[in-house]
């Protein structure tokens, strides 16, 4: 199936931070994510500390932005600074150099929300007990009247260095366009049918649930878009959970020539196809894809039925996928604001 150019969003909950800064790799990036899920919280707290305890270790532009954060409030009842998220974003100047936290009150905000690349250091925050819903419906063919198909992107992220915490992202086909840049997803829920995480991003998904909607046709979780070995992008899923109905879902397919996708310590339900991965009807790509698995569990994780081009990774082979170094995170990744 072809990809549309639309970024029309389906319903989702959002808490995110967007940064655009330079990156230097730190030795702290190499601390491995522990094998036991019960230890992940301590690992995260030790390696992703708040700004106050990391002054002098972060990128200079990020430190400057965090020095004097400001908060604006969006509320549908008119009691905030703005009634719409779009208006709140418009109020932030291009070339922004200050952390701006946008507190979004409860309710459904039916808006097609865009944060321009000239507006870094923006955080969306919703209350855990009254989470907002950002919703917009549409199809890929609607923006230009030409593109066929029914896919609707719920979230497109093409900014470098962005983190998503406790987000619930819902769509059908092409739910998350993980387009490009370094990204981090933690404790999220992502739902879809075909290629519902796709693109050329370099992303680490930690403790995130991937839910497959039952469908009569093909179901695929990832369509990672690396085209050559010179491109530094890929997806690493660690301590995630794959749920859904049916039994034919592929973990990924060779949408492009050289995709890189790894699942480690992931609980795979019965929805996962025993073959695991698809060459996307391009057998010549079997020798160029990097589809890896490491110490997964659950009914869908049995390596014996996998296609021959799956890599069952060794401790050494999986190492680079199991740390913040995969996304160069030690210089930019921060926990969500309290």
From TrEMBL:
Protein's name according to its UniProt entry: Pectinesterase
Reactions accelerated catalytically: [(1->4)-alpha-D-galacturonosyl methyl ester](n) + n H2O = [(1->4)-alpha-D-galacturonosyl](n) + n methanol + n H(+)
Gene3D superfamilies per the UniProt record, alphabetical: Single-stranded right-handed beta-helix, Pectin lyase-like
Pathway: Glycan metabolism; pectin degradation; 2-dehydro-3-deoxy-D-gluconate from pectin: step 1/5
Every Pectinesterase catalytic domain range: 72-127, 149-329
InterPro entries: Pectin_lyas_fold, Pectin_lyase_fold/virulence, Pectinesterase_Asp_AS, Pectinesterase_cat
Signal peptide stretch: 1-27
Active-site positions on this chain: 195
Uppermost EC category: hydrolase
Family: Belongs to the pectinesterase family.
Matching Pfam families: Pectinesterase
GO biological process, one term: pectin catabolic process
GO molecular function: pectinesterase activity
Main location group: secreted
Keywords recorded for this protein, A-Z: Aspartyl esterase, Cell wall, Hydrolase, Secreted, Signal
EC number(s) recorded for this UniProt protein: 3.1.1.11
Record lineage: Eukaryota, Viridiplantae, Streptophyta, Embryophyta, Tracheophyta
Cell location: Secreted, Cell wall
């Amino acid at each position: 199936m072809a990809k549309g150019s639309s970024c029309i969003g389906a319903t989702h909950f959002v808490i995110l931070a967007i940064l655009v800064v330079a990156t230097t790799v730190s030795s702290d990036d190499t601390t491995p994510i522990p094998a036991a899920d019960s230890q992940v919280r301590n690992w995260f707290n030790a390696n992703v500390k708040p700004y106050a305890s990391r002054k002098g270790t972060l990128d200079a532009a990020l430190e400057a932005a965090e020095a004097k954060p400001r908060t604006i409030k969006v509320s549908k009842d008119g009691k905030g600074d703005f009634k719409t998220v779009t208006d709140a974003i418009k109020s932030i100047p291009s070339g922004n150099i200050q952390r701006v936290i946008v507190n979004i009150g409860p309710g459904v905000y039916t808006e097609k929300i865009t944060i321009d690349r000239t507006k870094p250091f923006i955080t969306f925050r919703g209350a855990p007990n009254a989470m907002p819903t950002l919703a917009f419906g549409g199809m890929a063919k609607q923006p230009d009247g030409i593109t066929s198909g029914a896919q609707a992107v719920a979230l497109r992220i093409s900014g470098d260095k962005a983190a998503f915490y406790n987000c619930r992202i819902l769509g059908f086909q092409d739910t998350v366009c993980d387009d490009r840049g370094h990204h981090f997803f933690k404790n999220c829920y992502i739902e879809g049918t075909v290629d519902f995480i796709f693109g050329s991003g370099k992303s680490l998904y930690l403790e995130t649930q991937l839910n497959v909607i039952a469908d009569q046709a093909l179901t695929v979780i990832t369509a990672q878009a690396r085209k050559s070995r010179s491109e530094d992008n890929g997806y690493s899923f660690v301590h995630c959970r794959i749920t859904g109905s049916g039994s034919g879902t592929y973990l990924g397919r060779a949408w492009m020539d050289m995709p890189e996708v790894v699942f480690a310590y992931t609980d795979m339900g019965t929805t996962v196809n025993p073959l695991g991965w698809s060459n996307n009807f391009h057998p010549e790509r079997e020798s160029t894809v990097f589809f890896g698995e490491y110490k997964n569990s659950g009914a869908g994780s049995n390596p014996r039925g996998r296609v021959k081009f799956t890599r069952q990774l060794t401790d050494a082979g999986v190492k680079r996928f199991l740390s913040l170094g995969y996304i160069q995170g030690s210089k930019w990744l921060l926990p969500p604001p309290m």
